[in-house]
Design a protein that fits this description.
This protein has a domain at 65-312: Spore Coat Polysaccharide Biosynthesis Protein SpsA, Chain A (Alpha-Beta Complex), CATH 3.90.550. The protein is 25% helix and 15% strand. The protein has seven helices and 14 strands. Strand 1, helix 2 and strand 2 form a beta-alpha-beta unit. InterPro entries: Collagen_mod_GT25. Keywords: Glycosyltransferase, Transferase. It comes from Didymosphaeria variabile.
Length: 377
């Protein structure tokens, strides 16, 4: 029996050949990702422990889904998000509808520890929309999601930026036990032990005395002097970089990341947030301040990347904000107030600016002058 089993019939040999061919094809497909050439960087990635190098993230930036929040009437912003995602190869899985504060019924408003405060907080609608995003994750058993607001910009090479960060979190995260691997040594996207990742903060304040962090070189991170004022201030005053320094990223346990333009949540984080922030427990502040307090208290496991990888796209007109004061905005008559006239700071190559490639002169008509000579117009 043992000797005869070593010889395969022609039919079996054919099946075996097909299996081998499929294996080699899949293996070849798995090597098509571009990899980083660290010799071209200005520094070295510290404490490399991975067996293979970083590769670009997938269409959802290595999260299970990407969702974004937008007021239903902001079709201009929705158009911009869809275009920017398409041009950079991203997939937006779900739009979460923004919620006006007035639409949060009085019986559904989060209780507060300060009952004398105005019960109709202007940030109630913002909280409800983000809570709807967390609930969407829970309802659909989504294990991780990137949650963005509809006025963000990212780098043209966003897949490289996030792919490198993901690899660093899995292989170089000295902030976590066992480099953030699971109990059995398994690896997870961005590590196995986090609730919340902040990458769209407008201001970040590190712990006043504990500056524990790890850093790495990112060729798609521009000079620090090009960032918005508060992001630049953090890097210069807290981390002692110079404005001309470029290619810098660092990760810290979150202490005080302000703004929620972009952040990621795990399934566990979504459940904790929905329970802790307005769902079951009292809520006293806008959700970014709630995130800060819960991270400080150790009730959410959070990390922050600096400088941020998602930044605000500023429009110079009433469309820049959905706050009430925005509708009274008076723009300079010479200023382009469309979405296309906006700008962002802190990106090496703005994806929204790059949308200009969709505009231009793509066809010329042939005409004849009086002499019959053909000319292009």
């Amino acid at each position: 029996m043992m000797a005869s089993s070593m010889f395969l019939t022609p039919r079996a040999l054919g099946a075996y050949a097909v299996v081998i061919l499929l294996f080699l094809t899949i293996r070849q497909l798995g090597t098509t990702h571009a990899t980083y050439n660290t010799s071209e960087w200005k520094g070295k990635v510290s404490h490399l422990t991975g067996s293979s190098g970083p590769k670009p993230a997938n269409s959802t930036l290595d999260f299970q889904e990407i969702v974004y929040i937008s007021m239903p009437y902001r079709t201009d912003r929705q158009d911009a998000m869809v275009l920017t995602a398409a041009q950079t190869g991203l997939k937006l899985n779900k739009m979460i509808k923004g919620v006006p504060s007035a639409d949060v019924h009085e019986k559904a408003r989060p209780l507060t520890n300060h009952p004398g405060d105005d019960p109709k907080k202007p940030w109630l609608g913002v909280w409800r929309a983000h809570a709807d995003a967390w609930r969407y994750m829970i309802d659909n058993d989504i294990q991780s999601a990137l949650i963005m607001e509809d006025d963000v910009d990212w780098d043209v090479n966003v897949k490289e930026v996030f792919g490198l960060w993901n690899w660093q979190m899995k292989n170089n995260n000295s902030l976590a036990e066992n480099l953030g691997r699971g109990k059995n040594g398994e690896t997870c996207e961005y590590g196995c032990d986090w609730d919340h990742l902040s990458m769209g903060q407008c201001v970040y304040k590190a712990h006043p005395t504990d500056h524990t962090h790890f850093s790495y070189n990112d060729p798609n991170s521009p000079a620090i002097g090009s960032f918005a004022k508060d992001n630049k201030k953090e890097m210069v005053e807290t981390w002692k970089y110079k404005p001309e320094d470029a290619g810098v990223r660092l990760v810290t346990p979150s202490y005080a990341p302000l703004c929620t333009m972009g952040y990621a949540m795990t399934q566990r984080g979504a459940r904790r947030a929905l329970y802790q922030i307005g769902g079951f427990l009292a809520m006293d502040s806008p959700i970014d301040l709630e995130f800060i307090q819960h991270a400080k208290d150790g009730r959410l496991k959070s990390y922050t990347i600096s400088p941020p990888t998602l930044v605000k796209w500023k429009v110079f007109g009433p469309g820049d904000t959905d706050n009430d004061y925005g509708f009274d905005f008076k723009a300079n008559p010479d200023q382009d107030t469309t979405q296309g006239g906006g700008q962002s700071k802190g990106l090496l190559s703005s994806a929204r600016q790059a949308l200009k490639a969709l505009d231009g002169k793509f066809h010329t008509w042939k005409t004849e002058d009086k002499k019959g000579d053909k000319k292009g117009t």
